Amino acid sequence: MSIDPAREASLDVLRAVRVDDAYANLALPIILRNRGLSGRDAAFTTELAYGALRWQGLYDAILAQCVSRDWEDVDPMTKDILRLGVHQLLGMRVPTHAAVDSTCNLAKGAGSPGGAKARAGFVNAVLRKVTERNLDQWIEYLGVDGDSEQQLAIRWSHPAWIVRALAQALGEKRSELGDLLEADNVPAKPSLVARPGRISLDEMLAIPGVEAGRWSPLAGTLVEGIPESLEEIRTGSVGVQDEGSQLVTLALSRAPITSHTNRWLDMCAGPGGKAAVLDGLAQQVGARLVAVEQHPHRAKLVSNTLGLETTAEVLTGDSAQHEWSGEFDRVLVDVPCTGLGALRRRPESRWRRKISDVSGLAPAQRSLLNAAVKAVAPGGVVAYVTCSPHFAETELVVQDICKAHPELTILDAPALLPEVTDASRGKFVQLWPHRHGTDAMFLALLQRSAE
């Protein structure tokens, strides 16, 4: 028996997500390094692990038709192994015999030796049934080729509550729901940002393997290689940052203000990507950034990202509990949220999040935005940002705070991003993976009255 190291590493990733509650994007590089995998083996591991996580809902529906007992009674380790096998059969160009044989070997090497043979036999029998249909035939067999929310949830492998929330957020564009769910399952190429004051866009685009981004005037896309291989990433002149995050940060810097404190604030700065962009933009106009992060280890990441040449001040603490007194021209509050807008980058998060998380995060979101209103100077602007399009995390929060603070005016945020098309949700910006190729970032810009 020979266990393929790439497949074994993929199982390690799934186990880390399930047992240790790890984030796949953080666990994967460690596992690849520990197993000495690079190049094609690393790429295979990434596609296999991420694919099995993304498509877990659909694969479980298929596997439930192929086991002789209740799918819920199958032990978690065997479920992970079977999901890896199904992704090779239905989602990758792996020959059938290689997918089945290698997955059976994986089953033999996992868990206790006493049950290895039985597990391998079970895996072999189940995967042989899976091979009786291709993916399209399975979708038709399951009856999930329609456009009802229940069908779309299984077909595109999303929890039903997330599908309902996304359908509501799309509003009149509900017909795009299938396209949005499909986009969540397309691996995103790394987006790069030319950090202002450190490197020009032209200099970044001269790096081999980097092409121009789609919307942001600071953006590039890494089409070949991995970010860690770039010297500019290691020195900090270039960062890895979704174009959506770049755009909402740029919009804040462009908003008209009448205050003149020359101080900017990032209230939830970790790990520092937006802070680095804000810092460069602030220095260009003679302003100074204050970056606050509640957790010490993330505050350290912010300091590392900003580097030694920054004029910014990094503080550790809870922005919502600080006694602010209207001292900042521009305030960014990128609140903790469910992350429903970044499902394509975080394959496990759709299964980890629960509908109760929405209401659970609401107090923190309102508390932080309320603190931001206190921090901004008269005539200054607050940017309320989430990586979720859910109404309860976006418009409802803004409406509640505006009712409590009649001195606020909602600015026309889409007008400050003329580069971007079809991103208006009234006066708010709402980006979408299927329309813009970005995370589903939401932006509201609130100006405090100068009186």
Automatic annotation (TrEMBL):
<dbReference type="InterPro" id="IPR029063">
    <property type="entry name" value="SAM-dependent_MTases_sf"/>
</dbReference>
<dbReference type="InterPro" id="IPR001678">
    <property type="entry name" value="MeTrfase_RsmB-F_NOP2_dom"/>
</dbReference>
<dbReference type="InterPro" id="IPR035926">
    <property type="entry name" value="NusB-like_sf"/>
</dbReference>
<dbReference type="Pfam" id="PF01189">
    <property type="entry name" value="Methyltr_RsmB-F"/>
</dbReference>
<dbReference type="GO" id="GO:0003723">
    <property type="term" value="F:RNA binding"/>
</dbReference>
<keyword id="KW-0489">Methyltransferase</keyword>
<keyword id="KW-0808">Transferase</keyword>
<protein>
    <submittedName>
        <fullName>Unannotated protein</fullName>
    </submittedName>
</protein>
<feature type="domain" description="SAM-dependent MTase RsmB/NOP-type">
    <location>
        <begin position="166"/>
        <end position="449"/>
    </location>
</feature>
<comment type="similarity">
    <text>Belongs to the class I-like SAM-binding methyltransferase superfamily. RsmB/NOP family.</text>
</comment>
<dbReference type="GO" id="GO:0006355">
    <property type="term" value="P:regulation of DNA-templated transcription"/>
</dbReference>
<dbReference type="InterPro" id="IPR023267">
    <property type="entry name" value="RCMT"/>
</dbReference>
<dbReference type="GO" id="GO:0001510">
    <property type="term" value="P:RNA methylation"/>
</dbReference>
<dbReference type="InterPro" id="IPR049560">
    <property type="entry name" value="MeTrfase_RsmB-F_NOP2_cat"/>
</dbReference>
<dbReference type="GO" id="GO:0008173">
    <property type="term" value="F:RNA methyltransferase activity"/>
</dbReference>
<dbReference type="Pfam" id="PF01029">
    <property type="entry name" value="NusB"/>
</dbReference>
<keyword id="KW-0694">RNA-binding</keyword>
<dbReference type="InterPro" id="IPR018314">
    <property type="entry name" value="RsmB/NOL1/NOP2-like_CS"/>
</dbReference>
<keyword id="KW-0949">S-adenosyl-L-methionine</keyword>
<dbReference type="InterPro" id="IPR006027">
    <property type="entry name" value="NusB_RsmB_TIM44"/>
</dbReference>
